[in-house]
Design brief:
The structure is a single chain. This protein is α/β, with parallel strands linked by helices and 638 residues long. It has 19 helices and 27 strands. The chain has three domains: 243 residues, Aminohydrolase, N-terminal nucleophile (Ntn) domain (Glutamine Phosphoribosylpyrophosphate, subunit 1, domain 1), CATH 3.60.20; 190 residues, Glucose-6-phosphate isomerase like protein, domain 1 (Rossmann fold, 3-Layer(aba) Sandwich), CATH 3.40.50; 164 residues, Glucose-6-phosphate isomerase like protein, domain 1 (Rossmann fold, 3-Layer(aba) Sandwich), CATH 3.40.50.10490. Strand 20, helix 11 and strand 21 form a beta-alpha-beta unit. The longest helix is centred in the C-terminal third of the chain and has 23 residues. The chain is globular and about 80 Å long. The structure holds 2-deoxy-2-amino glucitol-6-phosphate. 2-deoxy-2-amino glucitol-6-phosphate binds next to helix 9.
Length: 638
């Protein structure tokens, strides 16, 4: 997510904007910049690739003097990280400057239209269309020009604008990208989130979707997109800065878990567009054309950790939508096993960071053997995205917590869309089936939000169950290891087993990984059908068995597995479809319900309780949830 900061008042703006951008660094970025109103009718700006210190270096020799400015830290979504793609973006006359956070879904069409009207573009960004639209509509009224420009764009935006012709004024607007104004004495502020304002004021006005705000040193006017005044009193913020960066959540992980529905919605809105009255999937940045895809005879997905689990789900997805055989490999195995790939093989490397050493090596190995390579990545301009033949970005925004959650579901969303895209290329499924599936897909983030809302309503019960587990777990430790302090020991006897079947089997692995990596409790994921081939020997009153048993063609088999575990005294925590009556007969320890959805999409729902279980147990155990021991966010070494 990009960061925006603005100031208008009597003080020198440059230093305040840099301070505000530093407070927003945690959001992740690859370039930064600012624009300042420097005296009568003049705008000056600086922007640099890389860290804010690069910008500060430039400003040391070339300070921008003025008391109204807007600044930006960019997390690239369209246009690789570079100085020219950094914000602010200015109109052709360098008299209007814009910074933006979000994705303009119809920017290609707007860009073509503006080019036909004689506008020349300097960058590859979607943002630049905004400043040229404002310039097009500008008639000495910045609020009106912004209002008209906003009505032309579709997508998500938090946008801040200054004009050389209206000194002391900042105009801003938002839709589905956060923006908040800070109320000072004889000065006013603007920021992407509260954390950047708390150095200056605790009185804030949250800008809502579809609103425009006009700031000067002594005024703050809110209006809607029709220009009608909106009344809103400032709120008093009592968070500290750290809480503010987590949006009021106690940890980044839980914040990112709750961001998932919004991210999936944004992915669908950006990637599914109407084409001749039908929905079609678009990957603008892909760079592998349909003819090349048409020659592919098999697919190999390579990744590590959570991304590998996404690849396992991807196998079910791609084989459901196409008739192409799909293999999945951990990158560390693929790169050393003399893989049998050729130019008819599509190797898809999945990676949140795009810097994982094994996955990078696997991609290079595949390329050296002539395979067509595709990266599914979250970080624009990362090594993997630059070295693969084609790339699809997940646009999940920076994932701060080491334990991957929103990147995982964003990877799944892209894999669903890729499967539907390939189904169209290979004519592998009836057109109506593809249309119906795309339509159903839009329901999924709404259902994901329901699961998370249910958790919020029942959070106390979740915490109580985590506490019960903690009590039982340490009682078992004492039983098996005798008396004395056994603080923080982890015993294989008090462990979790995760079971799933079909497209939900990979989530059993993912749930186990989530628990292991943030609570350090032994946990294992297994295909439920494998229980009789060994793991059932583990079952006595000890393990807590999380069973993924949503409505599916293997539901009855899952119920049989649960009965076998129950009969041996195991503690059952089933994840079932809302209204499931069968499971109640098995007297589970704690049933978690998810809304009904087509089986193919169920992993996007069943993974949420697994993320929440891991979070609640780790919180109960008092572990460092966002920065767990021994782990790095990106494993750039073997
Ligand atoms: C997931 O929670 C872990 N942090 C880890 O397994 C991670 O998924 C793995 O290291 C792959 O990272 P990448 O997606 O950046 O390649």
């Amino acid at each position: 997510m990009c960061g925006i900061f603005g100031y208008t008042g009597k003080k020198e703006a440059q230093g305040l904007v840099l301070q505000g951008l530093r407070q927003l660094e945690y959001r992740g970025y690859d370039s930064s910049g600012l624009a300042v109103q420097c005296g009568a009718e003049e705008l000056r700006f600086e922007k640099t690739k890389g860290k804010i210190r690069n910008l500060e270096e430039v400003l040391k020799t070339n300070p921008l003097r003025g008391s109204t400015a807007i600044g930006h830290t960019r997390w690239a979504t369209h246009g690789t990280p570079s100085q020219v793609n950094a914000h602010p973006h200015l109109d052709s006359a360098n008299r209007i400057a814009v910074v933006h956070n979000g994705i303009i879904e119809n920017y290609s069409r707007l860009k073509e239209k503006l080019k036909k009207e004689g506008v020349s573009f300097r960058s590859d960004t979607d943002t630049e269309v905004i400043v040229h639209l404002i310039a097009k509509y500008y008639r000495n009224n910045l609020e009106e020009a912004v209002r008209r420009a906003i009505k032309d764009i579709r997508g998500t935006y938090a946008v801040a604008v200054i004009s050389a012709k209206e000194p002391g004024k900042i105009v801003a607007a938002r839709f589905d990208s956060p923006l908040v104004a800070g109320v000072g004495l004889g000065e006013n502020y603007l920021a992407s989130d509260v954390s950047a304002l708390l150095d200056h004021t605790r009185r804030v006005v949250f800008i809502e979707n579809g609103e425009i705000v006009s700031l000067t040193e002594n005024s703050m006017r809110l209006m809607d997109l029709e220009g009608r005044a909106v009344k809103r009193l400032p709120s008093k913020i009592d968070w500290n800065i750290s809480q503010a960066k987590k949006g009021g959540f106690p940890h980044y992980m839980i914040k990112e878990i709750f961001e998932q529905p919004e991210i999936i919605t944004a992915i669908l809105r950006e990637r599914i567009k109407k084409e001749k009255h039908r929905s079609a999937v678009f990957f603008e940045e892909l760079k592998i054309n349909r003819r090349e895809f048409g020659k592919i005879k098999r697919v190999i997905l390579i990744a590590c950790g959570t991304a590998y689990h996404a690849g396992l789900v991807g196998k079910y997805i791609l084989e459901a939508f196409t008739d192409i055989p799909v293999w999945v490999d951990t990158s560390s195995e693929f790169r050393y096993r003399n893989p049998n790939v050729d130019r008819r093989t599509l190797v898809i490397a999945i990676s949140q960071s795009g810097e994982t050493a094994d996955t990078l090596a696997g991609l290079r190995e595949a390329k050296s053997r002539g395979a067509v390579t595709l990266a599914i990545c979250n970080v624009l301009g990362s090594s993997l995205s630059r070295e693969a033949r084609g790339v699809i970005y997940t646009h999940a925004g920076p994932e701060i917590a080491v334990a991957s959650t929103k990147a995982y579901t964003a990877q799944l969303a892209v894999l669903y869309l890729l499967g539907l895209y390939l189904a169209g290329i290979f004519h592998a499924r009836p057109r109506k089936k593809i249309q119906d599936t795309l339509k159903e897909f839009f329901r999924v983030p709404v259902l994901m939000k329901e699961v998370l809302e249910n958790y919020k309503r029942d959070e106390k019960n979740w915490a109580k169950n985590a506490h019960d587990f903690n009590e039982r777990y340490h009682a078992q430790l004492k039983k098996y290891f005798g008396g004395g302090a056994i603080e923080k020991k982890r015993s294989p006897n008090g462990f979790f087993l995760y079971l799933g079947r079909g497209i939900n089997f990979p989530n059993a692995l993912e749930g186990a990984l989530k628990l292991k990596e943030i609570s350090y409790i032994p946990a294992e994921g297994y295909p439920a059908g494998e229980m009789k081939h060994g793991p059932i020997a583990l079952i006595d009153e000890n393990p807590w068995v999380i069973c993924l048993a949503p409505r599916s063609k293997t539901y009855d088999k899952m119920i049989s597995n649960i009965q076998e575990i129950k009969a041996r005294g195991g503690m059952i925590i089933p994840v079932v479809t809302r209204g499931d009556r069968e499971i109640r007969k098995l007297d589970p320890f704690y049933s978690i319900e998810v809304p009904a959805v087509e089986e193919i999409f169920s992993p996007l729902l069943t993974v949420l309780p697994l993320q929440l279980v891991a979070y609640c147990v780790a919180r109960e155990f008092g572990e460092d949830i966002d920065q767990p021991r021994n782990l790095a966010k990106s494993v750039t070494v073997e």
